[in-house]
Amino acid sequence: MEIEKFYKLPALTYSYDALEPYMSKEQLTIHHDKHHAAYANGVNAVLEKIERSRRESSEIDMKATLKEMSFHLGGHKLHSLFWGNLAPAKGKNNEPKKELLAVINNEFGSFNRFKEEFSKTALSVEGSGWAALSFCRCTKRPLIMQIEKHSYNVYPNFRIIMVLDVWEHAYYLDYKNDRAKYIDAFWNIVNWDKIAERFEKMIK
Question: Please, are residues 201 and 99 in contact by the beta-carbon 8 Å criterion?
């Protein structure tokens, strides 16, 4: 008996061409429908393998299996966050409002300084991975972190506010190997309303 598919590809809240010219319809379609779908399907497959081994009392390589589950589950969760913090371009003055902006300015000195540090973080990810803005409830500080692949260099228990996917599959069709150009374009389509909503939930 096949177990329930718990992890499913989330639908986008905007059309596939809504992020142009910063992210093409073709790039977004392949990234969402192929790459993200593979992570959701992958974690379901791992869970099914674990369930089958228990039913059949068979042995599996737990280290390899859990590493595979971490990879797919991390990919699914991070991509789900990523789609939510994108929105059709709002112009050059696209920045957070009110409390989130105040917290960013207090931590980094200015919003432009934050953008510079976050962009450098994304650009310097070795190989495949992510840049993320997280929030520490203990210190009440927003902190930038790198995520290698989907699960390394993460600050445990820090809530993620915003992510940027810098795997090549996220930008190669549009920008080839020019990661810096892709990162620069990203700032035009950041959904600060959604990110502020996540932040507000974290501080309650």
Answer: no
